[in-house]
Amino acid sequence: MSKKKATVTLPTRPQPPTPEQIHEDVNHTLPDDVVFTFFETNTENETAGIMGDSYETEENSETPASTPGSTDDSNDAEPQQNVEELYQKAIQFLEVNNELKNAPKSLRAQCEQLEEMGRNLTEAIGQLKSQADQGL
């Protein structure tokens, strides 16, 4: 029973933009475009992240940025806690994943040890039986 692997044909890649197209795009961007403001520092001299000032506290900002679906009375610390919690879960997942990758090798070694111990135990039982038979 041989299985044929399905061949997948990928679509062709689009052509990269020409230098003229790149210059045109850069010339038509606004000064407040994210590509220019991503690495600017905020009022506390901290590097702004992907979310920019959406996590700024109200006391540090004259007009706090709001995220879609948020209300004015929302607590800005809560999203940061959620981000930290998700980060910790991701770290924990990666650690467990690495342990699972190493588990087969570890389990094989433990299995070999148990088999060796079983052989030694069987041999010791055989020796005890032979000594018991000789003593009678």
Question: Brief description of this entry?
Answer:
This protein is mainly alpha-helical and 136 residues long.
Tell me about this structure.
The chain is mainly α. It has three helices and no strands. The chain has helices at 19-27, 34-37, 77-135. The longest helix is centred in the last third of the chain and has 59 residues, at 77-135. The radius of gyration is 32 Å and the shape is elongated.
Tell me the number of strands.
0
**Helix share bin:** 40-55%
Number of helices: 3
Mind describing the biggest β-sheet? none
Q: What do the pLDDT scores average to?
A: 77
Order of helices and strands, N to C?
HHH
**Proportion of residues in β-strands:** under 5%
Low-confidence parts, pLDDT < 50 over ≥5 residues? Answer: 43-73
Q: From the structure provided, what is the oligomeric state, counting identical versus distinct chains? A: single chain
